[in-house]
């Protein structure tokens, strides 16, 4: 799956697990996730979907730690590669491996979604991060603090919520939502916001009033932008635990 500039959701590599899984937030009891890091076919209009999101104020960040979402890059889809390598394989071009076809040693973002520039990845001195489109801290303050660990682990490793991107740009985002941060590449903003809507809808996260207004402002410029769906189930396999 390679999401390109605004409105390019049609470039998705498809993996059909049922559209209802991607957009309804329903829970699937399964010991394994999807067979890979892909998304399914696109759903309805992202602009319309914004109105289905619950609006509340941001809850306190109290109690948030990364460990609440489990060990970083857990292999929740049971394909024997960790989530980070799954996303690198999906999003990089010219991929090379250091062990078989799992551990990515090098590649290139061609282009980086957030800046539109090419960015090289070399393991150990990388200029590439894996971004949570909906930041985990943001999710914590908008519903995830009340979830069980299984759902938090699922969110942290769901390919629907993950993109390989330029590291410096990703770090400037922090835990920003649509109201406080958008990618520098204007051509990608509609696709980016549609992805945030998809994740928040799937996981039943709420949005603030300012966030909802910002989402609608961006998506009103691309009313035909589709909401992506799919990814992994909203419950991680029982063998995974969070701190």
List the helices and strands and how they pair.
Elements: H1 19-24, E1 39-40, H2 46-50, H3 83-91, E2 93-99, E3 103-109, E4 119-122, E5 128-132, H4 136-140, H5 149-157, E6 162-166, H6 167-173, H7 189-202, H8 209-219, E7 229-230
Antiparallel strand pairs: 1-7, 2-3, 3-4, 5-6
Report on the structure:
- With 243 residues, the chain is an alpha+beta fold.
- Helices cover 27% and strands 13% of the residues.
- The chain contains 8 helices and 7 strands.
- The strands form 3 sheets. Strands 2-3-4 form a 3-stranded antiparallel beta sheet, with helices on one face. The chain has a two-stranded antiparallel sheet with strand order 1-7. A two-stranded antiparallel ribbon has the order 5-6.
- The two termini are 31 Å apart.
- Mean pLDDT is 86; it is low at 1-41.
Structural class: alpha+beta
Distance between the termini: 31 Å
Helix content: 25-40%
Question: Compute the gyration radius: what is it?
Answer: 16 Å
Question: What's the short version?
Answer:
Helices cover 27% and strands 13% of the residues. It contains eight helices and seven strands, in the order H-E-H-H-E-E-E-E-H-H-E-H-H-H-E.
Protein traits:
243 residues; alpha+beta; two-stranded antiparallel sheet; 7 strands; globular; disordered N terminus
């Amino acid at each position: 799956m390679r999401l390109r500039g605004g409105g390019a959701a049609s470039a998705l590599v498809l993996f059909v697990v049922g559209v209802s899984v991607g957009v309804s937030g329903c829970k699937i009891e399964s010991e394994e996730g999807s067979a890979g890091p892909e998304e399914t076919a696109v759903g309805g209009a992202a602009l319309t979907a914004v109105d289905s999101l619950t609006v509340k104020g941001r809850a306190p960040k109290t109690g948030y730690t990364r460990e609440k979402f489990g060990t970083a890059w857990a292999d929740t889809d049971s394909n024997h590669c960790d989530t980070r390598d799954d996303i690198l394989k999906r999003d990089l071009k010219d991929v090379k491996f250091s062990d078989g076809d799992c551990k990515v040693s090098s590649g290139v973002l061609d282009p980086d979604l957030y800046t539109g520039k090419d960015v090289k990845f070399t393991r150990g001195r990388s200029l590439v991060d894996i971004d949570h489109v909906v930041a985990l801290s943001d999710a914590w303050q908008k519903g995830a603090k009340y979830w069980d660990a299984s759902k938090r682990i699922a969110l942290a490793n769901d390919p629907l919520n993950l993109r390989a991107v330029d590291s410096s740009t990703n770090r400037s985002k922090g835990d920003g939502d649509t109201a406080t941060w958008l990618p520098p590449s204007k051509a990608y903003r509609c696709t980016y916001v549609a992805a945030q809507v998809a994740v928040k809808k799937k996981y039943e996260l709420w949005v603030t009033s300012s966030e909802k207004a910002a989402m609608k402002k961006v998506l009103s410029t691309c009313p035909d932008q589709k909401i992506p769906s799919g990814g992994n189930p909203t419950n991680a396999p029982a063998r995974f635990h969070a701190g």
